[in-house]
Every structure is written in structure tokens, then in C-alpha cells.
Amino acid sequence: MATRCYFNHWAVQRRTRKPEAAGDDKLVIRLILERVSGSLVRSAGEFIVETSTPLAEKEIWVDFCRIKQFSSDASIESEYAEMMAESLSSIGVPEAEHAAIIESVFVAVDAAVSSKLPLDVGLWDVTYRLQLNDGFLSSQSAAAVSWYLRRVVIGKPGTPIFEAIVYVLKKGEGGRHSPLFAGYRPQFYLM
Question: Are 6 and 96 in contact (CB under 8 A)?
Fold first, then answer.
């Protein structure tokens, strides 16, 4: 059984109550950090959440009309990006994740129709176990599964985009059910 960790996020404007102290033109951005642990069952291809523990929650109040103009003014964008990066750091989000999260927030703000509904940003610090009932994954294949879950693109800029399907043969189909030798680890090659 292998254990892997990754960070996931989403940003959406929800139909929940806005805090009473908010002004008419103030948009509330709620950062909600949770630690999630679970299992990835390889044979079923599903992620089973076992525990979800809230770690931190922080609210950022922004001027709705002003932040909606961020696409036309780089100084507004950098001002709000810096404010969000500080807030993310204060609740313990790794700095490497900031750019992707801030981009998702800006996309959600751009799609927001009103300042009356808060914008929730869910942040998951995920640890999962790969349940390998009929074999095991090498570190390369486990990394490929982890990258797939994070939706990370593997490749140099400018390379062609394509879809691929990996099919692992079962024992009855001629696949191996035991390693070739002690310590053998199957490999994935990306070309």
C-alpha cells in the first residue's frame, strides 16, 4: 500500500447567506482549508473519503466592482493577488499552490453575477492510500496517478496534446501476476 499527498482546490459562488456586516458592494471570499484522507481503490477507480477535518477558515472582503475590473487593470490584479497570497499563507497553504488557487478565484470572480452571494474557495490537503489488491504501482506509476488526480499536464510547452489509455493485462489475458525478479518495478515512459 502506497501513500501519496497532493493539494486540490475549487472556487464557486454559492447560494448561502452573506455575513450581515458586509456592505452592498463588498464581495466576501471565504477560504476554507480542510485536511482530507482516504483511499484510492485501483480496481474500482474511485476515491473514498474517510475523514475530512476543517483546519482553517478566513474571510477576505473585496470591493466587487473594483475586482471585476481586474482584467483591464494589471495593478488591481496584482494588488488582489498579493492580498490573497498573504491570506493563503496565513492559513498554511503551501506557496507552490498559490498561483493556481488565485487564478481559480479570479475565474470565479469573473463569472460572479452579484456581490450578494459569497465566493467559497475550498482547499483540500489530501493524503490518500493506493489500495493495490492485484499488484503494486511503481513510484513512477503512482506519480502518474497523482498527477492525473491533480490534473497536472505532463509535457514540454508546444508538444502535441493527445489522449491515451493504459490497459493493464490481467493474469488470464497474459499479464504478469508476480514480479520478474525481486525489487522489479514497472515503468511508464512518456514520449
Answer: no
Q: Where are the domains of the chain?
A: 2-129
Helices (H), the chain: 64-68, 74-90, 98-111, 139-150
Q: How far apart are CA 141 and CA 15, in angstroms?
A: 40
Task: Name the residue among 45, 34, 48, 9 with its Cα closest to residue 128.
Answer: 48
Among the listed residues 97, 107, 96, the one whose alpha carbon sits nearest the alpha carbon of residue 11: 107
Tell me the mean pLDDT per 10 residues along the chain, length 191. 72 69 76 84 68 88 80 78 91 88 86 82 80 52 55 58 63 68 60 46
Looking at residue 18, what DSSP letter applies?
P
Calpha distance 97→95 (Å, rounded): 5
Has this prediction a pTM greater than 0.70? no
Q: Which amino acid is at 171?
A: K
